[in-house]
Design brief:
Blueprint (H helix, E strand, L loop, with lengths): L3 H11 L1 H17 L6 H10 L19 H8 L23 H24 L30 H9 L3 H13 L6 H14 L11 H19 L6 H4 L8 H8 L5 H13 L3 H13 L6 H14 L3 H17 L6 H11 L6 H14 L6 H12 L5 H14 L14 H12 L2 H11 L11 H18 L2 H11 L8 H13 L6 H10 L6 H13 L4 H16 L15 H13 L3 H13 L6 H14 L2 H13 L5 H11 L4 H21 L11
Length: 689
């Protein structure tokens, strides 16, 4: 007979509200009395629950993933805006300080990884022990050399798995010559491999130099047949679909073909630029009453704009392919609609209306658009003259995806953030730019910004927009947030910052910006340096600011002098010389300014009349008659038109000695003679003639 406690326990378990109260009270009692739940107590609760309708299962332990601790620790850490990118933390000594060093370090890091992987894969016997926890399969050595030497189907399968294109083709030819009948699936696997890599081995860096040269010459010859002449060095690396290659040869030798065989050939032709031949193969597929799969249709849709010239004809071909998919009951996927949207970007004015229909069809089929889908739509609507409709579609898209976390589903997803920020910059829409940047911070969306180049372009456009539209305090706040942890600004970005300082009247911060310019390696940019000097020399500031300007100008001056290795720095221009001299004069650094006049002479530059007037005004404050007379001599040596005016002012505002007066008289006489020489003779009147 069950005890009253068991009956009470069953009553409690049958009532969910009472069950919660019972468990809470029991837990509090155990905590107060420092009593742990024993196995027998848990068993009694389980037995009491047998008679209840809701079964309670108490797990023995909680199972955590191996990455749970790392994920929990990572969630407690925030990005340090004053530190460099996380990818450079392994070696603080080599943390890049400039955009050039950033590129060099990134390439060196990838080169080091490639070299390490080469040694690991070349000597796998020395790297068998795995100390990593959790286990990381991609860091373990892989076998890239074929182990089966005899001619057999197993050897062909091994070479296909190792992605040895030429070795697999040679093994296939040997099997065919020996009379071996290969299965259709195995032949399709080989055809997939050849079409994927364009009948070339994927790792051309491991080839012999002679073999690599032969391949480059073949590509060059085929490219000249297609385009007449190579225009860029990158065309040599581009893989084109060669006539009668191994893929076509093996396809023609196949005793039977299925949809996969045709699909592999079509996708390979589209991938490597043979769109017209791909459609011919698709016609053969239809004639043989076969049905193409969704990947084949995706490739044909992306290649459709290549076969038609008029916009309407391009869309008609795309629409025909979509209708054929519906007739053959081939369900489209996300890449199908993305391929259609991408093709519509080349269809002119009809693209806007049709793109919205495609987006509605996606939602009707329950397919969630990816970032690439929105990128294609915004690109279609942003073409042409700016209008209100472009802003509305941008707002609708960002409102629709705000707060959502995306995963990579299309290779073109990485272009979304960079392209949308360009649209915000073109329309000067700061509000939408902030929405876009907040979307980047959601979840793992930051991974979809692309490589270092895409990231630099995105942040460069964002910072350019901030400099144009925001207050300088906000600009400086973002500047500290982005540089250098996320963004290494180029010279144009720093020029935008200088213009923002000028707009809000914060030129006193230029010396601080100059330190960043030097650190970022842009102190050799003539346009940037002259822009900064002209801003400091334009208006007179407070004495403290002028002193900091003078120190900055002298530091800039050192950039124009040869370095310790004898390498020449920047080339002097009249603007840079005049700006530095004006800055020094405004800071009462007359001796340093006088040295700049000597630089004018050695660099064959001519000072301006305004600069000579400023120089004389500074000498007037100091009542330095000797330098004033020398200044007039310098002006006369350059035959400046302002020389007589300077002589007159010196005679009026300075106490001159007899030697000074004699010198000025000789200069005045020589200037008068120069005027007579340059004066045009008057024409004689007819009477005198």
């Amino acid at each position: 007979m069950a005890s009253p406690g068991i009956h009470a326990g069953r009553h409690i378990l049958n009532n969910s509200f009472l069950l919660k109260r019972f468990l809470n009270n029991l837990e509090q009692t155990c905590l107060r009395r420092n009593i742990a739940w024993t196995a027998s107590a848990l068993q009694k609760i389980a037995v009491a629950a047998e008679g209840s309708s809701d079964e309670i299962v108490i797990p023995k332990k909680k199972t955590w993933s191996k990455e749970a601790v790392l994920q929990a620790l990572a969630a407690t850490v925030k990005r340090d805006p004053t530190a460099a990118n996380y990818m450079f933390q392994d070696d603080p000594y080599l943390i890049p300080r400039t955009s050039g060093e950033f590129k060099l370090y990134s390439l060196s890091q990838e080169s080091g990884k490639t070299a390490a992987r080469y040694f690991i894969n070349s000597n796998p016997k020395f790297f068998q022990k795995d100390f990593a926890e959790p286990h990381i399969p991609c860091l373990m050595p892989e076998t890239f050399q074929p182990q089966i030497e005899e001619v057999s189907e197993a050897a062909l399968v091994e070479r296909i798995q190792l992605r040895k294109v030429k070795a697999a083709v040679d093994m296939y030819d040997q099997l065919v010559q020996s009379g071996t009948t290969l299965s259709l699936d195995l032949t399709n696997d080989l055809l997939d491999l050849i079409c994927l890599y364009g009948d070339q081995d994927p790792k051309t860096n491991d080839l012999d130099p002679e073999q690599k040269t032969e391949e480059v010459e073949e590509v060059q010859d085929d490219s000249r047949k297609r385009k007449g002449k190579l225009r860029r060095a990158s065309d040599i690396i581009q893989v084109y679909w060669r006539e009668n290659n191994n893929a076509e040869r093996i396809f023609n030798l196949m005793p039977e073909r299925d949809s996969r065989s045709y699909g592999a050939l079509i996708q390979g032709m589209v991938k490597h630029g043979a769109s017209s031949k791909a459609f011919n193969i698709y016609t053969d597929l239809q004639n043989n009453r076969l049905t193409a799969d969704v990947n084949t249709f995706n490739a044909l849709i992306s290649a459709a704009p290549e076969l038609r010239e008029k916009y309407a004809e391009k869309w008609e071909l795309i629409l025909e392919l979509l209708k054929q998919m519906a007739e053959q009951k081939v369900r489209p996927n996300l890449l199908t609609f993305n391929a259609a949207l991408k093709a519509l970007r080349r269809c002119g004015g009809i693209a806007k209306s049709q793109s919205l229909l495609i987006l509605g069809e996606m939602k009707a089929l329950g397919i969630t658009p990816s970032l690439a889908s929105y990128d294609h739509i915004l690109s279609i609507f942003s073409k042409g003259v700016a209008s209100q409709g472009h802003t509305e579609i941008l707002q609708d898209v960002l409102n629709d995806i705000s707060g959502k976390s995306f995963e990579p589903q299309d290779p073109d997803d990485v272009f979304f953030f960079m392209s949308v920020m360009r649209i915000c910059l073109d329309h000067k829409d700061l509000e939408q730019a902030y929405k876009l940047h907040s979307l980047l911070q959601v979840g793992e969306n930051w991974r979809l910004i692309g490589n270092s180049f895409h990231q630099s372009v995105y942040y460069g456009r964002f910072f350019n927009l901030l400099c144009m539209m925001e207050h300088i305090d906000t600009v400086l706040k973002w500047y500290k947030e982005l540089v250098p942890s996320l963004y290494y600004p180029n010279s144009q970005g720093l020029q935008d910052l200088l213009q923002a300082l000028d707009t809000d009247g914060r030129l006193d911060l230029i010396p601080q910006i100059w330190k960043d310019i030097k650190q970022l390696g842009h102190d050799n940019r003539v346009e940037l340096v002259e822009e900064m000097l002209s801003l400091m020399a334009r208006e007179k500031q407070s004495p403290e600011v002028q002193k900091s300007f003078a120190q900055c100008a002298l530091d800039v001056k050192s950039r124009y002098l040869p370095n310790a290795f004898g390498k020449l720095g920047l080339e002097w221009t009249a603007n840079s010389l005049g700006s530095i001299t004006s800055i020094l004069l405004a800071a009462q650094e007359r001796q340093q300014a006088w040295e700049m006049l000597k630089v004018f002479k050695t660099s064959n530059r001519v000072p301006t009349n305004a600069l000579m007037e400023d120089f004389l005004s500074s000498l007037t404050e100091a009542q330095d008659a000797d330098r004033a007379v020398e200044l007039v001599q310098v002006a006369a040596s350059y035959c400046l038109p302002i020389t007589p005016t300077l002589i007159e002012k010196v005679e009026q505002e300075f106490e001159l000695t007899e030697d000074h007066k004699e010198t000025l008289s000789s200069l005045e006489f020589s200037s008068d003679n120069e005027k007579k020489k340059t004066r045009k003779p008057r024409k004689q009147s007819p009477v005198s003639e």
